[in-house]
Amino acid sequence: CTTNYLSTLTVLLTPTTSRTVPPA
Asked: What is the distance between the alpha carbons of residues 7 and 22, in angstroms, rounded to a whole number?
C-alpha cells in the first residue's frame, strides 16, 4: 500500500518535470 501510494504521488508530481527533462 505504501509503495503504491508513493508511486502514485511520483506519477502525479513528475509530469511537470518530465515535460522539461524526461527521466533517464
From this structure: 17
12, 3 Cβ separation under 8 angstroms: no
Amino acid at 1: C
* Polymer length of the chain: 24
What pTM did the predictor assign? 0.33
CB 23 within 8 A of CB 14: yes
Secondary structure, 3-state, 1-24: CHHHHHHHHHHHHHHHHHHHCCCC
Q: What is the pLDDT of residues 1-24, one digit of tens each?
A: 677 888 887 777 666 655 666 665
